[in-house]
Amino acid sequence: MTCRKVRKLIPLIAGDDLRPGLARAVRAHIDACPGCRAELEGFRAALAEVKSAAKAEGLPEWGEGEWNALMARVAAEAKGTGNVPTGAGARAFAPRWAAASVLGAAIGLAVLSVLFRGPSPRPETTPGDSGMVIASENPQQDRVSITMVSPESGLQVVWFLDKNFDYKGEQE
Amino acid sequence: MRMNETEKELIDMVLSGRTEAFEPLVTPHRDRLLALATRLTRNREEALEVAQEALLRAYRSLARFDVSRSFRNWLFQIAANEARDRYRRKSRELAAFSEVVDRAPSATAGSAAADPEAGHDRQELRAGIMRSLAALSPREREVFVLRDLEELDIRETSRVLGCSAISVRVNLSTARRKLRDAIRRDLPHLEEKR
After folding, report:
1. A155 vs B61: CB contact, 8 Å cut-off?
2. Got the DSSP string for B124-166?
3. Which of A62, A87, A92 is the closest to B63 by Cβ?
4. Which one-letter DSSP state was computed for residue A163?
5. Is A102 buried (19+), middle (13-18) or exposed (0-12) by CB count in 10 A?
6. A160 in helix, strand or coil?
7. Looking at the complex, does the CB of residue B180 fall below 8 Å from at least one CB of chain A?
8. What's the pTM?
9. B116 min Cα distance to partner chain A (Å)
10. Strands, E assignment, B15-155
11. Who's near B77: CB < 8 A, 6+ residues apart?
12. CA–CA separation, B43 and B95 (whole Å)
């Protein structure tokens, strides 16, 4: 691992926020590199200052009047509807929507990558020029991966799709 | 942080129609909820509105709460969504930034009285850091506040914000780097002291 890559990851290693495998590799480099070690120590000290100052900031507290008024609103709402809470009108926090969004984005990216990968070779046609087209020169290919890299942090994620562009997993 | 048995019982009571159980359910979390809202909005009045709306929403949608999750983190999630919605609606970041700059010195005046010189440094540091926090993007600030100030782990943070762990790491990395760069740029003497 190079100093350049390690320094991109220092904000995360400073808070022990890297995956264990990657963290081990970064620590091995830092143990052997005085420059990166000094950079990490400086970063940790700055982060500690920020946390300390932010936590020491005077935060507001609930006034008893405000709190009682809120609880009164809850009680009034219960009386007004005559019902127990059902979730109507509230935001849904369903993880399935997040998964569906990721899947949709993955399929979209996969389709775009196929559409914009440059001029394709002239398609083969079947004997007799029947109009049938063989879409791929490699019909055995049944797995697509898309790699995205954050230019700032150097982190990357790989999405795997099958030949039907169904999401099959990801790897950081 | 998993939900405890008392919370489960209180939730069951509220869901069975005993509204009075809602107050003891949320009281243990009220101060941290308001603190989170304050750090996200950088505005006391708006934070109070966010926290109030979050608790009302929590009451309304309690039946959909997944009891395998942390109740506190669920409240955080609702508050973060509410703060984000408000931010989008009002686009008040510049106004909030100015308010923080104007307010920061008076907020720390009491602690500076005992040792004026040290107090001045702390005051300056705090004001600088608050300016830097206010200058983060909303997502960066959410991630930094939840991970570094509320001390949720990466997975909890991603659940609260409804995004992937990789997104949390990318935003956290950017936020920390911006804060570090701001200290280097705006408060170089604090760096030199180390």
Report:
1. no
2. HHHHHHHHHHHHS-HHHHHHHIIIIIS---HHHHHHHHTS-HH
3. A87
4. T
5. middle
6. strand
7. yes
8. 0.65
9. 17
10. none
11. A93, B159, B160, B161, B162
12. 10
Task: Spell A128-165 as b/e; 16+ CB within 10 A means b.
Answer: eeeeeeeeeeeeeeeebebeeebeebbbebebebeeeb
Spatial CA neighbour of B52 closest among B74, B28, B83: B83
Q: Which residues of chain B have pLDDT under 50?
A: 105-114
**Domains of chain B as residue ranges with CATH:** 1-90 (1.10.1740.10)
- Tell me the DSSP string of A88-155: TTSPP--HHHHHHHHHHHHHHHHHHHHHTS-PPPPPEE-TT--S-EE--S-TT--EEEEEEE-TTT--
Bridge partners of A146, per DSSP, are A159
Which tens digit of pLDDT belongs to each residue from A28-79?
Answer: 999 999 999 999 998 998 888 888 887 777 778 888 888 998 999 888 887 7
Question: In angstroms, rounded to a whole number, what is the distance separating the alpha carbons of residues B55 and B61?
Answer: 10
Residue A93: which of B77, B129, B148 has the nearest Cβ? B77
Give per-residue pLDDT as tens, A93-140. 445 566 677 788 888 887 777 776 655 455 444 444 444 444 445 555
**A147 and A156 Cβ atoms separated by less than 8 Å:** yes
Residue A85 has pLDDT above 70, yes or no: no
- Rounded-to-10 torsion of CA B41, B47, B52, B54: 20
